[in-house]
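Journal club prep, notes for RB
We'll compare a predicted complex against what the paper describes. Inputs for the zinc ion case:
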Amino acid sequence: MFLSPYAQMQKAVDIVHSSPHPVNKIAAALFGQDQDGQDYSVSSTNYWPENIVKTIGTSCKIGGSSGTIHAETGCILKAPYTDGASICVTDPFCPNCAKNMAEAGIKTIYIDHKGFQKDFALRRGSHFDAVSMQICEKAGISVYELYRKEERLVPIWEAPESFSPFEDSPAQISAIDVLNQQSFDQYIDDAEKLHYSRKFAIAGAIDKGGAYYIILVRSHPALGYCMQRDKAEMIRDDSKYNFVLEPVSRLLMNAARNGLTICDGYLYSSVVPTSREQVNMVGAGLMQVIVGDKERARDETAFDAMKLLSMQSIIRFIDTAH
Ligand SMILES: [Zn+2]
């Protein structure tokens, strides 16, 4: 069967050695049904976007982030419609990908059992248990360890039947008649009034039938978390990973979840996107972002990434007239 997780895992395993990463070679295959009920499957290794390889290279950091797109996120950026989809990954996934997969509406994750035996997984183990799995439980994503040869699944965590995660602040998606600079400026204005000093992002997007939409999101903890209720749970000592999903990342994931493509030039972020958001933007093929306040960012590394990517003409950071 085309959509069996064993066949899909084999697809990921078959390409994993083609990963350009010298040490951590990872691959994933994402599969499900698009809005028309058609089966699809896409796969990806972790990789550096072509324009980053050409101009910056693979050894240089981009602000605080590596220049790579993780395999799981790479699949989401390629997929036609991720709501309810499943994904096979060769290795235990990182917290950032867990947040992305939750936001993209993925419901089932299969991890190759061999992935748990690698050095890399052992090093990453505490993040997997303490952060990635917590995110999956809150989002209602079932996670299985998959044995290809025996065609056997061992549940790591199974979401209760008909579990529906709490959505504190879902993306607001509205159908619109026209998308042009003037109308987009108006949507930015309205969003600014609504969110005031909160971090948010907004984009114009198109579906495969050619209809336009506006997607509006604010920075928010991963799907299923509630800002107030889960405050204590979200406090962590190390700062490498946290539970918050930044707005541009949320936009990219919600576009995938709803089968929409963000129109380049129609992306606005109220502050400078984080280094990771900027790299993921490049992975999504976006080359422009309008920034509300270029003096504001989550951390200093975002400014370094902005400097580097604009100097190399990979992303244009456009000043807003607002
Ligand atoms: Zn990852």
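Talking point for the session: The longest strand covers residues 261-272.
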